[in-house]
Design brief:
Rossmann fold; five-stranded parallel β-sheet; elongated; alpha/beta; seven-stranded mixed β-sheet; about 325 residues
């Protein structure tokens, strides 16, 4: 072999590893958008990544994740979805309620979409049916916003001598009309009066706090809403400072000092979203993956908070809780 040919062969051989790497497919990218914010999403995001891991995908190892957060401002969701679609993500995840799921679906008809929301996706027109979603979208639901009457009843059991109950509802949330209707029906059934304060931003939330104090409500129900989740600490602090027994939707509230929480397990729902994303990355189609419904519920009572409020929670209610903080 001539020296020139041998050198050429060596050069080609040296280039083979680089050529092979160049021909390897790029890691898939998940576009993760949420109506919530990073600070109030730590535990559910861990659950999402746990689900991904169960399906064989680990962030920065064999999959990339790009995050977009609305921080409770629902008007930002369409732009966040459009931005991720422009990034040509492999799967688009829309979490934090119906408006996030809707923004994701409206942004693309081709990229697979996996949602997590609290309302009925069939009624919302997002899927054809629970068993056969059709199209490019599927996901997991928690139906927390349909449980306001149940939470009202639990709070009434905790403070049976309170006559006037207060509630905070976000009028910009898609389920707010149903929430209002449910609460207004529940109050007379329980023989209680109800004052509802509305808030969709920080200024309105401060005004809602002032109105609740002005009306001298004796207990507080915080309606299911992602915006309120982003302001969880402020709401819990308000209830504590004013010695208001309060009930919330997710266990995170009770573990951060809220009195009572009752609702579907949000961490389990987000884990299921991660599992579905992994299955889609492996080649399954959203149209063939049934919409998942909640099977686990969290009922948490914080007896430390009860003691601080000077409240004795009835033992019968404590016995029904699946978690007690004392």
């Amino acid at each position: 072999m001539r020296r020139r040919d041998f050198i050429s062969l060596l050069g080609a051989a040296a280039a083979w590893p680089f050529m092979a790497r160049a021909q390897q497919p790029a890691m898939p990218t998940i576009g993760y958008m949420s109506a919530r914010s990073p600070a109030d999403t730590v535990q559910v995001l861990e659950a999402f990544h746990k689900g991904l891991g169960e399906g064989g995908f680990v962030s920065d190892r064999n999959v990339n994740v790009e995050y977009r957060w609305a921080h409770g401002d629902y008007s930002r969701l369409p732009a966040l979805a459009a931005e991720l679609v422009q990034r040509r993500v492999t799967v688009l995840v829309g979490t934090g309620g119906e408006l996030s799921a809707r923004a994701a679906k409206e942004a693309t008809a081709t990229i697979p979409v996996v949602f997590n929301m609290g309302s009925d996706p069939v009624e919302a027109g997002l899927v054809q049916s629970f068993n056969r979603p059709g199209g490019n979208i599927t996901g997991s639901i928690i139906l927390s916003e349909a449980m306001e009457q149940k939470r009202f009843g639990i709070l009434q059991e905790a403070v049976p001598n309170v006559v006037l109950f207060g509630a905070i509802v976000n009028p910009n949330y898609s389920a707010s009309a149903d929430q209002m209707s449910d609460l207004e029906r529940a109050a007379p059934k329980l023989g209680r009066q109800l004052f509802v304060a509305k808030a969709s931003n920080d200024a309105e939330l401060d005004a809602a706090f002032a109105a609740l104090l002005r009306e001298r409500v004796g207990a507080l129900l915080v309606a299911s809403d992602p915006y309120f989740d982003t302001r969880r600490r402020s709401i819990i602090a308000f209830a504590a400072e004013n010695r208001l027994p309060a009930i919330y939707q997710f266990r995170e509230y009770a573990f951060e000092g809220g009195l009572i929480s009752y609702g579907p397990s949000i961490t389990d729902a987000y884990r299921q979203v991660g599992i579905y994303v992994a299955r889609i990355l492996k080649g399954e189609k959203p149209a063939d993956l049934p919409v998942l419904q909640p099977i686990k519920f969290d009922f948490v009572i914080n007896l430390k908070t009860a003691k601080m409020l000077g409240l004795i929670v009835p033992p019968t209610l404590v016995a029904r809780a699946n978690e007690v903080i004392d």
